[in-house]
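Translate sequence into structure tokens.
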Amino acid sequence: MRSTIYEFRVDGRLPEHCREAFCGMQMEEVPSGLILRGAVIDESHLLGIVSELRALGVSLVSMRPSNWPERTAPRPTSRSPKGTWTRGTRRLLRRPR
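Result follows.
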């Protein structure tokens, strides 16, 4: 399955304890807020990221496929061994009720 690198620009900052929810994404602080970049597997994954940002009360300014080549995409920031699930990943994949 081929993923697409997306760039999410948000207004404001994420507290350190909330960054776990976006494991595997690079976070770059810029004067206007924060840029998250990372691989998005499919539409449901994309919507899960948007939903998580909304749940954290962060304003999404823009969302678009990035022109970063996938081979230079940042490495995951999670300290979990490859193939394991973190609490943040499970929360992103959980369907709304």
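Note: DSSP finds two helices and four strands in the chain.
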